[in-house]
């Protein structure tokens, strides 16, 4: 499988990243191990998690996902085969991007992940209360110390990414080599009208989250009634709009023509989008995982790409 380089770093990833927010939430540890084993067996290598995952699940506090990944890594060995991404800043217990918090949070994450380095350490939020200089200096020190190979920024807009890149250059700090925005066929506007251009101009890698719109783009939910009993009901609500219906109609239509499932087409659309390094997506069962991994072998014909882009077009707001 052709790997892709993350920004200007030396890190190479396969074109689908496993999303770790399901570990300890909708997937228990045993099943998580099976999913991760199968993922790497098929040649994929990158895993995304965060200190806060999955604190929203009943009975959880946060830290569960990193612990599952850490236990899997300890059992499997060969740490260097895997590209490990985690994040700091969103969890109440280790909130924000102050230097002191970053220093403390990285030690906690390393301990839970049972490793002595992270491949990518993300700012999970844009913390506007802390000067970017302070945050970037603290992150940069972690790179110097060998605790982190590369830095990333999640939920930053284009302007703030530009500022951060300028500050890194002025102070000779390590720079953000990768961004992690919400981006999928439904949620396009924010990324496409801001961050995408700045990332591309500066050769910053892009790994997208909610790449399947929390499962909506798989087509398994026909109406809001179908989501009532799911763990993701709160996240899925917003997709049941006329535009959501239009996107699903286009996916179903192409699905027959191209012999690929809606989930595969939705991921292939991202994988082939200029500027996108890889989508992040999760799966809760092996069959789901096999299905989404097959998207990496699918190249969308230009006409199919055009149809999906058109069916998911959004009205540009003037604000
Ligand atoms: N940076 C951030 O702020 C941020 C925010 C959110 C997420 N993320 C990252 O992005 C990752 C991806 O987000 P996500 O996992 O929440 O959402 P997602 O990738 O959009 O959706 C994944 C979910 O869709 C369902 N699914 C997957 N494959 C399927 C298939 N073939 N058929 C039917 N259903 C299928 C599964 O859920 P069910 O089986 O439960 O239906 C799966 O857990 C996260 O794990 C996390 O690493 C980052």
Poorly predicted spans: none
What's the β-strand tally? 10
Ligand inventory reads: NADP nicotinamide-adenine-dinucleotide phosphate
Report the span from N to C terminus: 42 Å
CATH superfamily: NADP-dependent oxidoreductase domain
Name given to the CATH architecture: Alpha-Beta Barrel
Element pattern in H and E = EEEHEHEHEHEHEHEHHHEHH
How many helices? The count is: 11
What's the rounded overall pLDDT mean? Answer: 97
Shape: globular
CATH class: Alpha Beta
Instruction: Give the strand content.
Output: 5-15%
CATH topology: TIM Barrel
Q: How many separate structural domains? A: 1
Describe the strand arrangement of the main beta sheet, using strand numbers: 3-4-5-6-7-8-9-10
Sketch the major β-sheet.
8 strands, parallel, barrel
C-alpha Rg, in Å? 19 Å
Please, could you describe this protein's structure?
The chain is of the alpha/beta class and 319 residues long. Helices cover 41% and strands 13% of the residues. Strand 3, helix 1 and strand 4 form a beta-alpha-beta unit. Helix 1 (29-41) packs parallel to helix 10. The chain is globular. The structure holds NADP nicotinamide-adenine-dinucleotide phosphate.
Quick structural gist:
This protein has 319 residues and is of the alpha/beta class.
List strands and helices in order, with pairings.
Layout: E1 4-5, E2 12-13, E3 17-19, H1 29-41, E4 46-48, H2 64-76, E5 83-88, H3 99-113, E6 118-123, H4 132-144, E7 148-154, H5 158-171, E8 176-180, H6 189-201, E9 205-208, H7 233-236, H8 242-258, H9 262-271, E10 278-281, H10 286-293, H11 302-311
Helix pairs in contact: 1-10, 2-3, 3-4, 4-5, 5-6, 8-9, 8-11
């Amino acid at each position: 499988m052709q790997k892709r380089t993350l920004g200007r770093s030396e890190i190479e990833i396969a074109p689908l990243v496993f999303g770790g927010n399901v570990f300890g939430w909708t997937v228990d540890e045993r099943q998580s191990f099976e999913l991760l084993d199968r993922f790497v067996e098929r040649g994929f290598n990158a895993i995304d998690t965060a200190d806060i995952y999955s604190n929203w699940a009943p009975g959880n506090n946060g830290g569960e996902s990193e612990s599952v990944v850490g236990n899997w890594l300890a059992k499997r060995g060969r740490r260097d085969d895997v590209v490990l991404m985690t994040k700091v800043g969103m969890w109440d217990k280790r909130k924000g991007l102050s230097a002191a918090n970053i220093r403390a949070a990285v030690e906690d994450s390393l301990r839970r992940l049972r490793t002595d380095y992270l491949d990518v350490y993300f700012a999970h939020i844009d913390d506007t209360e802390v000067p970017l200089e302070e945050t970037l200096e603290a992150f940069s020190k972690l790179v110097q110390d060998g605790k982190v190979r590369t830095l990333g920024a999640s939920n930053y807009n284009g302007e703030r990414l530009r500022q951060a890149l300028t500050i890194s250059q002025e102070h000779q700090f390590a720079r953000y080599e990768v961004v992690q925005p919400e981006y999928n066929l439904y949620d396009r506007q924010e990324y496409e009208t801001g961050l995408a251009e700045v990332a591309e101009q500066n050769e910053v890698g892009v790994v997208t989250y909610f790449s399947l719109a929390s499962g909506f783009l798989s087509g398994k939910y026909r109406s809001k009634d179908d989501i009532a009993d799911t763990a993701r009901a709160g996240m899925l609500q917003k997709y049941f709009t006329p535009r959501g219906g239009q996107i699903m109609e286009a996916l179903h239509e192409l699905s027959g023509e191209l012999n690929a499932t809606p989930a595969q087409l939705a991921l292939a659309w991202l994988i082939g989008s200029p500027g996108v390094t890889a989508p992040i997506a999760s799966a809760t069962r092996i069959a789901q995982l096999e299905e989404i991994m097959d998207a990496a072998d699918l190249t969308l014909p230009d006409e199919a790409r055009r149809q999906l882009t058109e069916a998911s077009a959004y009205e540009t707001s003037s604000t």
